[in-house]
Amino acid sequence: MRRLRACIKADLYLQVKYGFYTVYAIVTAVYILLLKQLPSESLKIVTPMIVFSDPSMLGFFFIGGLVLLEKGENTLEYITATPLRIGEYLLSKMISLTLLALMASFIVTLFSYGDLVHGIQLTIGIILTSSFFILVGFIAVARFQTVNRYILSSIIYMTFLFLPLISYFGLWQNWIFYLFPTHASLILIGGAFQSTEWWKLGYGIGYLILWIFIAYPLAHRAFYRFMILKEGERS
């Protein structure tokens, strides 16, 4: 626990140092300004989608940026030589980046939509969505040393994971979208803004937890293969 606390503290320091909080502040301000221009009847649709993008897109790309920065500065070389465990490293990233996502998401919600939301449900949705995307983002970036190759790879991940937006915006309704973890995120976060059936909320929570349990060992294995054994890309 002491190692984990120290790692979280170090991660928070690095996120501030590398300007993650500044970027989040700018993005959050832009979101609020855009949402303020929308009619009130549109906010129930657009606000959940914007809130969803915080823990998903930014969580995915921020973990990628952190890992590439740590590789570039050879920080991971030192980490693998310390008693810090792989699980503690991953958990620290999940906690520190999720705190940032929670802060930004609630600021966007408060200033654009007000406090007429289910706060506990929204919190659970953000935490689970952020945790899942951080793990997937780590899996996506682990093998790469350069930003360009990582970005090309991430396009495939994000295109696939964001397919449920087709259903969210009513372009095509099909049961197959329930197989996507992001569909569970959209239902759970969207349900914080309007009434949703209990079984859908149960599905959202349970399915996201399931996918976190699937993604975590894959991220753990990716760390071992590409950070410790040094497999994969060499340049």
Shape: globular
- Mean pLDDT equals 88
β content, as a range? under 5%
**N-to-C CA distance:** 35 Å
Structural class: mainly alpha
Gyration radius, in Å: 18 Å
Report the sheet with the most strands, covering strand number, pairing sense and barrel closure.
Answer: none
Order of helices and strands: HHHHHHHHHH
- Number of DSSP E strands: 0
What is the share of helical residues? over 70%
Number of individual domains: 1
- Number of DSSP helical runs: 10
Which stretches are low in confidence, meaning pLDDT under 50 for 5 or more residues running? none
Summary, kept brief:
This protein has 235 residues and is mainly α. Helix content is 77%, strand content 0%.
Overview of the structural elements:
The protein has ten helices and no strands. It has one domain. The mean pLDDT is 88. It has helices at 2-17, 20-36, 40-72, 75-79, 86-112, 119-141, 147-161, 165-168, 181-190, 198-228. It has 235 residues and is mainly α. The longest helix has 33 residues, at 40-72. It is globular, with a radius of gyration of 18 Å. Helix content is 77%, strand content 0%.
Outline the fold blueprint.
Layout: H1 2-17, H2 20-36, H3 40-72, H4 75-79, H5 86-112, H6 119-141, H7 147-161, H8 165-168, H9 181-190, H10 198-228
Helix pairs in contact: 1-5, 2-3, 2-5, 3-5, 3-6, 3-7, 3-9, 5-6, 6-7, 6-9, 6-10, 9-10
